[in-house]
Amino acid sequence: MTEPVILVAQVVLMVVGCLFFGVGTLGLFRFSDTLCRIHALTKIDNLGLGFIVLALLPLAPSVTAGLKVVLIWVVALAASATSAHLVARAVRSGQRADIEKGSRDG
Amino acid sequence: MALLRAFCVRAAAFFLVWWVLTEGDSSGLGAGAVIVLIVAWFSCTLYPPSSHALRPVGMLVFTGYFILRSVIAGLDVVRRLLSPSLPLNPGYLRVKTSLPEGGPRWLLANTLSLMPGTLSVRLQGTSLELHCLDLDLPIDQDVRAAERKVAGVFGLGEAGTEESAS
Amino acid sequence: MTLMLNVVAVFLLGNLLVALVRIWRGPHAADRMLASQLFGTTGVALLLVLAQAQGMPSLRDVALILALLSVLAVVAFVTRVVGIDRSTEKTRSDPARPESERP
């Protein structure tokens, strides 16, 4: 059932997906400010998840199981984008509060 | 009539989701049918069919654009991360959107979070605050392009106004 | 193929552990909340791979729930811990409001 071409493609996709996850985690340490870290985490990890999902699709036992994996990917994408927005907004309003506090104190 | 049509479309969509979630298990389809009808009825009362109906063609165009741009976005961040000098020029940018309130605006904000170099920080009325990895990028141009694609999903015209057709 | 899947799962788990160091070091609360986002993507990928490797389809449901709950965790964080927008806007608008308008 698993032809060699598909097998090779799966391995390549998985390795690429893992590389993206690895680089995303590296971004958490290399970027110095919180918002840049959110950029790295959101964009790179979503791409990594996309590659892993693509690699898993040929292994899915049925069409619906494959569709379910894709559905989970879409939900994870929406979840990640929403989380990124909310954390970024929290950081930004924290910055504003600091600026206002500074101007009141000074 | 529009209500009945929206009800049928939503029920079909929910049933599809149910079918996928149960991985096509036939024993759950009966219970699913009942739940789908209740949920579709609730959704029609809570969110009455508005002018922002989803357009299949627009959604396909949007999906293609989204996948292409998110791959570019990932590679862009990876390139910046792995180059030893960390080429960043972060900063905030404010853009105005002409999209109507609600779903279209939120879809734009969430999409921009996954697009190259932008992260939506705050959405207030028509003004959207973005955090950019590199202010030298043509951000405004990208936002306009994303805005057009989002407008296509909801069947909105160029200036964010309702298209008269269909 | 199962071996490959297991290797991928171990790699993703290691990834999560390394990222937890960042969460531990902080320094801001927002940095720590990135853990939730991380579990929303890396955790979901890990569970999907494990579902295939172990032949446990129910782990896909776990992945779906994890993705949904990660958002709720962030929502709880920004509204309760940080008090999104409220901390700045309330202090600005409340003193400006005349006494008679207050309940």
Automatic annotation (TrEMBL), chain A:
TM segment ranges: 6-32, 44-64, 70-91
Keyword Transmembrane appears in the UniProt entry: yes
A single MF term (Gene Ontology): sodium:proton antiporter activity
Keyword Transmembrane recorded: yes
Keyword vocabulary terms for this entry: Membrane, Transmembrane, Transmembrane helix
Protein name: Monovalent cation/H(+) antiporter subunit G
Provenance organism: Marinobacter orientalis
Taxonomic path: Bacteria, Pseudomonadati, Pseudomonadota, Gammaproteobacteria, Pseudomonadales
UniProtKB/TrEMBL annotation, chain B:
Main location: membrane
Domain of life: Bacteria
One annotated Gene Ontology cellular component of this protein: plasma membrane
Membrane topology label: Multi-pass membrane protein
Transmembrane segments: 7-22, 28-47, 59-78
UniProt xrefs under Pfam families: MNHE
InterPro entries: Cation_antiport_E (IPR002758)
GO molecular function: monoatomic cation transmembrane transporter activity
Record family assignment: Belongs to the CPA3 antiporters (TC 2.A.63) subunit E family.
Record-given protein name: Na+/H+ antiporter subunit E
Source organism per UniProt: Marinobacter orientalis
Automatic annotation (TrEMBL), chain C:
Membrane topology field: Multi-pass membrane protein
Transmembrane segments: 6-24, 36-56, 62-83
Coiled-coil stretches noted in the UniProt entry, renumbered to this chain: none
Keyword annotations from UniProtKB, A to Z: Cell membrane, Membrane, Transmembrane, Transmembrane helix, Transport
Localization terms from the record: Cell membrane
Signal peptide: none
InterPro entries, per database record: MrpF/PhaF-like (IPR007208)
GO molecular function: sodium:proton antiporter activity
Highest taxon in the source lineage: Bacteria
GO cellular component: plasma membrane
PANTHER family referenced in this protein's UniProt entry, alphabetically: NA(+)/H(+) ANTIPORTER SUBUNIT F1, NA(+)_H(+) ANTIPORTER SUBUNIT F
Family: Belongs to the CPA3 antiporters (TC 2.A.63) subunit F family.
UniProt protein name: pH regulation protein F
